[in-house]
Amino acid sequence: MQVIPSSPEKRKATRLVHPEISQSVFHLFSHRIPALSGLPAMFSTIRADMGLMDPEWNKLGKPWQMLATSWLAAELRLTKSGKPPLEYKMIATTGLPDAVQMWAANQLSRSHVLYVHPTAQTAEEMKKWVSALSLSDGEAALKQAWCTSGKVGINLLLLGMKFWADVCGIDADWEEAMEKLVSVFQSITVAPSL
Q: From residue 61, how far is each of 37, 89, 116, 186 by CA, in Å?
C-alpha cells in the first residue's frame, strides 16, 4: 500500500523524489479524451479506422473532435430518418477518393480482406472533393449518394479527412476543409425534412 503525504510540502517532495509517479498521475488527470462518446454500436469495429479513438482522437486535435462531434449528430439524425443505407453499387457515385471507396466496398462486402493504404493521391483527391463540394443547405446534402447513415455513409467523409491527415499531416488546407465539412454536417442535422 502506498501512503500519500498529507501536507502540500510533503506531496511536493514526493513528486521530486518520484517524478515517474507524478508524471503518471498527471496523465490520469489530464484533460485528454480517449474517444468520441455516444457512438452507436455499429461503429465499434471501425472506430479506430475512423480516428475516433486515442491516439488519433487527441493527435488530430480540436478541429478533428469538432468534425467528429458534428458528424455524430448528423449520423444520429440520419439514422432516425429511415433513409436507406448506401448500397455497394452506389459507392462509385459518391466521387470520393479511391481509397475511401475501397474501404467502403470492403465494409459492405464483409470480406475484410483488403487493406487500404491511403497515399498522397488520396489526400489530393479528398482535397479536391471537399473544394468542389457546393451545398446550399442540409436538404441539398440529403440528395447526395454519400448522405446516408450506417457503416458506409456520411462517415466516409470523416474517413477521407483522416486519410488526408495520415498521409499529409495537418495544414491550413486540411483545417479549412474540416470547417467546411463541419458546416455540412451541421446543416444535415437541422435539415427540415429530417
A: 16, 35, 24, 19
Rounded to whole angstroms, the Cα distance separating 47 from 44 reads 6
Q: What sign does the CA torsion over 166, 171, 177, 178 have?
A: positive
Give the CA distances from residue 42 to residues 39, 103, 108, in Å, rounded to whole numbers and listed in that order: 8, 16, 13
Per-residue pLDDT of the chain (194 residues; tens, 9 = 90+): 344 444 444 444 434 333 343 333 333 334 556 778 899 999 999 999 999 999 999 999 999 999 999 999 999 999 988 888 899 999 999 999 999 999 999 898 876 666 788 999 999 999 999 999 999 899 999 999 999 999 999 999 999 999 999 999 999 999 999 999 999 999 999 999 98
CA distance 177 to 49: 20
